[in-house]
Amino acid sequence: MQLQELPSQQKLSSQEIADYVTRWGGSPSIALLDPRCQIFTSRYAEGLIGYRLAAGTAFVFGEPVCDPALKISLALEFEEQCKKHKKNIVYTQVSQEFGDWGVRHYKGALIEVGHDFFVDPHLDPTAGRDARMLRKKVKHALTEGTSIHEYTSPQAELEQAMERAKQTWLKGRKGPQIYLSNIHLFNNRSGKRWFYAIKGNRLVGQCMLNQLEARGGWVINLLMATPEASGGTTELLVVSILELLRKENCQYLTFGMVPLDKINRITGLSAFSNWFTKTAFKGANWMFKLDGKRKYWQKYKPYYESSHLLFTNKKFMARDMFGLMRAMNARF
User: Fold this and answer.
1) For the segment 256-293, what is each residue's pLDDT rounded down to a tens digit?
2) Which of 12, 45, 167, 327 could be joined to 59 by an S-S link, Cβ 3.0–4.6 Å?
3) DSSP states of 22-74 as a string?
4) What value does the mean pLDDT take over residues 212-224?
5) Percent of the chain at pLDDT exceeding 70
6) Average pLDDT in the 211-230 region?
7) In this predicted structure, what is the pLDDT of residue 1?
8) Are domains 14-116+258-327 and 118-255 of this chain identical in fold?
């Protein structure tokens, strides 16, 4: 019988998981809000680790979600459970600092795969000569009669319209897809904000934010426009949200991890695994059109922090690649 989940000290409710993500999480931690994500807790360190078992490996979403002083303790206890059940560990989307610790501890491998894009809302992305295209898109949406609103008071009909728009958008996506988690708009509402775009009397776009208290800001969990939306609707949503956060003196909004165009920095892999990793990443980049995400978010003039895959061994083979695709909800 195949093990479906590692033993955990405590079963947490979805609201308790959401509260941990709000308090201690980073941008990849939103994956833990998906009910399909498996959760590990410790008897010694308060916090949790979110992961999915695939191909004999526990693929962890981001770093341990806890007080920074307890990250290593929680990671070590998780490692102990994985060893007992003969599971490898791959950490996805970790910082340089955590990755360097992992390479030293596991004698494993570290691959820089992307950048965590973030902005300071106090800096206006529409300012300057290089923002001409962004201003043009925002102006077009406004000229077409699009307006942006925040959803703050209960309105059942509006929630239903937002859910329908989300489902229509999901069904309309074409080609291979890869994403961190399924999106649940109104589950566990604390720590969330919703914004929507109206054109005429129709909802044509929406954006959902999740709070990240440890970073003093928010992460964009959903950004979409319907087929009826004017060009520039998502840009108008982002610019409007940044303007509001600026007024609230917020200093951090992250767009999440954006993949690199190609892999350059690899530590600890064998020569063959090094070649295989670069080849597999190049294929995934082409198949899932990952470069489009980078091109879209760069228009907001983001800062970035490096994001890495951390392997507990020095091999990265086809089985690991397929397991990673499964853990990341790849659809072909």
Assistant:
1) 999 998 898 999 998 888 898 899 889 888 888 888 99
2) 327
3) HHH--GGGGGGGSTTSEEE--SSSSEEEEEEEETTEEEEESS-EE-GGGHHHH
4) 98
5) 98
6) 97
7) 34
8) yes
- Using the CB atoms, write b or e for 295-310: b if 16+ within 10 Å: eebebbbbebbbbbbb
Lookup: tokens for 80? 């102990």
Does CATH number 3.40.630 belong to domain 14-116+258-327?
yes
For 43, the token pair is 């008897």
Task: Give me 315's structure tokens.
Answer: 């091999």
Instruction: Delimit the domains of the chain by residue range.
Output: 14-116+258-327, 118-255
> What pLDDT, on the 0 to 100 scale, is given for residue 9?
66
DSSP tally for the chain: helices H, then strands E:
9, 13
How many residues comprise the chain? 332
Output DSSP code: residue 96. H
Distance CA(116)–CA(259), nearest Å, equals 9
Q: Which CATH superfamily is domain 118-255 in?
A: Gcn5-related N-acetyltransferase (GNAT) (3.40.630.30)
User: Is residue 93 scored above 80 in pLDDT?
Assistant: yes
Which parts of 176-300 are beta strand (E)? 192-199, 202-212, 217-225, 253-259, 266-267
